[in-house]
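We emphasize that the prediction below concerns an isolated chain of 84 residues; any contacts that depend on oligomerization or on bound cofactors are therefore not represented. The input was used exactly as deposited, without trimming of termini.
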Amino acid sequence: MQNGLCPKCSSSEVYYSAAKAAQHGLTEASYVRIYKENKWVPDITLLELAYYICRGCGYFEMYAQDLEKLAALDDCSNWRKVGS
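Result of the prediction step, given as a token string:
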């Protein structure tokens, strides 16, 4: 979808919105939390999301904005690698 084409219906009617947590206030829908238990204070990484939706069929995808922050997944408490 990031290329402007819907993978489900091949429509080019794809729209994009970047959720900016600082502008809209932090809501569960505007970010993904990655955290590591650290005794009393958890170490939290927030990933802002980008949204893509197809006007043709309604298919919807979300992507993390800052891929460097995904390194926190290696040693986190709330996400697990699929197949592990």
